[in-house]
Amino acid sequence: MNREQQESLPARDTRQWRKEVLMKAFDIEFYGGTKDRLIEDLVEHSTEKYSYIVTPNVNHVVQLETDRDLKRAYAVARHRICDSRVLLPLLRMLKVPVEDAIPGSTLTAELMNIAEQRAWSVTIIGCEDDDITRLRERFPNVTFHHHNPPMGFIDNDEAVQACLSFVVEHPSHLVVLSVGCPRQEILAHKIFETDQAVGIGLCVGASINFLSGKLQRAPMWMQRCSLEWLHRAYTEPRRLVGRYVRDAFLIMPILVREFRLRQSLFMGGAPR
């Protein structure tokens, strides 16, 4: 980073500096608060104009290097929450003061319990009908609206429009997007751009499959030991093992570049 770029940064130790410099890594401005405060914020705004959260992990960081649509979706998200206990130590190595990882599956489960207590409406994009049947049995007070787009929908204008229309026509407190990255984030951004939707969008991948019981989360001891990725690789080897190996190689040069950038941002040393 040259002198001119450094001089354009916000004054050190200001709120703007914390937001734009301290909490930012991999060109992602991370949420730095607690899970409880996050849930309070999402509940508070669940009846207002639509906004959405994204849940960065190592795979997302790798994809953000080349996917401009994903990058645009990330830029306007309400919060960018570290979802991964694999990404978390990398952030700590870079001295980004993220309090803890907040897995999307954990967040979705807690919000769904609130939805049950308050008899909310929840729109789900993605997942199979049997998942929704199980959710209706588990959360009888929740009104579920479900639309499952076809494979490859994100490249089909009519299929995308069907998703947008469904969300707008079924106002809900939560809009759960469960169609995988980067499709769910791009769709979340397109919903935002309609300027007609309400509620909180959650880009949370397989979280609905965990809630319905179709997939099982790792035992708690594995979650605490940051080994949930290993459990998922064991239970879904064909889908995940190759991705994990590829991401492990691709993240290394990105991490080195980010470390050097943050050294230059903090004038020769990472923040303490």
TrEMBL record:
Keywords: Glycosyltransferase, Transferase. The keyword Lipid biosynthesis does not apply. It comes from the Bacteria. GO terms for molecular function: hexosyltransferase activity. It holds the Pfam family Glyco_tran_WecG. Signal peptide: none annotated. Transmembrane segments: none annotated. This is Glycosyl transferase, WecB/TagA/CpsF family. It comes from Pseudomonas fulva (strain 12-X). The lineage of its organism: Bacteria, Pseudomonadati, Pseudomonadota, Gammaproteobacteria, Pseudomonadales.
